[in-house]
Specification:
The chain is an alpha/beta fold and about 325 residues long. It is built from eleven helices and 14 strands. The chain has a domain of about 180 residues: Rossmann fold, CATH 3.40.50. Helices cover about 40% and strands about 15% of the residues. The longest helix is centred in the first third of the chain and has 19 residues. About 40% of the residues are buried.
């Protein structure tokens, strides 16, 4: 793989974007990550060839300047819940994609990678999956005519800084009784290392151009089984109460009005479709081996001790 002159990673301060930045560092002369808060992302400054720029990616003029001379653009921007009108699913997933596409065209960027979601569908009832699906359709019908695009559609992505297992681990530490909505919803979680390795390998793979690719892990789990895996990783016990469909909807109605929006009706709608696929890319990493390494404090300490001894420190 030849070195890229300039790589732009939108959402590069996030969980998936930061992994990509680290892995692409030695393959790129320059990587730029736009953010509105440079101070809160000081850890990224340790990555060679990386520049953090104070830019609002929702501003079209800023995106145009950002993409100048770029030969690879990656978009990992996404939200799981709407916070306000400026941060709606439609604006963040669909309208932003249209702005990115226009800037790609103006700057003649040749390669674009896009993170979407398994089950994304412009006809979906849920606003999250609908906005993701609209973005996919736009990229395939419009952007692909002037840029080599690839869309990646992962199930749950797990890893040390993930927003799924870490969130539920925090809740389970403090709640002795846990009412679980949609306990039979199914997922095929993929390890962030597997996802990002595949994305990088696809950059110069012609067969991936103009394609949307499902990305999953090797195994299928119900929501209840993922909660059980979290409890095992934490080495703790809790009373889990599976909720039926009526109570799951009721929980969503109540929780979406609370601060933090732990569970919303849109989340409920997404859980009505199993996040599984028999097609596309399948990672090989097992979550049973990995999540204890970052959820369990004792396991974290053991890992640190092994690394310390390996480096020759006492």
């Amino acid at each position: 793989m030849n070195k890229f002159s300039k790589v732009v990673i939108l959402g590069g301060t996030g969980f998936i974007g930061a992994q990509l930045a680290s892995k692409l560092s030695h393959k790129s002369k320059k990587i730029i990550i736009p953010t509105r808060n440079i101070e809160s992302n000081s850890g990224l400054k340790m990555i060679p060839n990386l520049e953090i720029a104070r830019i609002d990616v929702k501003d079209e003029r800023s995106i145009n300047l950002l993409f100048k001379d770029a030969d690879l653009v990656i978009n990992t921007v996404g939200i799981l819940n709407e916070l306000n009108e400026d941060n709606s699913f439609d604006k963040i997933h669909y309208q932003l994609t249209k702005k990115i596409s226009q800037s790609i065209k103006q700057n003649k960027v040749k390669r674009y990678l896009h993170i979407s979601s398994l089950n994304a569908d412009p006809k979906s009832i849920g606003k999250y999956l609908k906005s993701k699906g609209k973005a996919e359709d736009f990229l395939l019908s419009e952007t692909s005519s002037f840029c080599k695009i690839t869309i990646f559609r992962p199930s749950i992505v797990f890893g040390e800084s993930d927003s799924f297992f870490n969130k539920f681990a925090t809740l389970l530490k403090f709640l002795p009784i846990f009412p679980l909505a949609c306990p039979n919803a199914k997922f095929m979680p993929v390890y962030v290392e597997d996802l990002t390795d595949f994305m990088i390998s696809a950059i110069n793979t012609i067969d991936t151009y103009g394609q949307k690719i499902d990305v999953t892990g090797p195994n299928e789990y119900t929501f209840r089984e993922l909660i059980d895996q979290t409890l095992m990783a934490l080495n703790t016990r809790r009373i889990i109460i599976p909720l039926n469909n009526f109570l799951s909807r009721l929980q969503a109605r109540v929780f979406e009005k609370l601060p933090g929006k732990l569970f919303t009706m849109d989340n409920y709608q997404s859980l009505q479709i199993d996040s599984c696929s028999d097609e596309g890319f399948k990672g090989s990493s097992s979550l049973e081996d990995i999540i204890p390494q970052y959820l369990n404090i004792k396991t974290k300490q053991e890992r640190f001790e092994k690394l310390r001894k390996k480096s020759g420190r006492k």
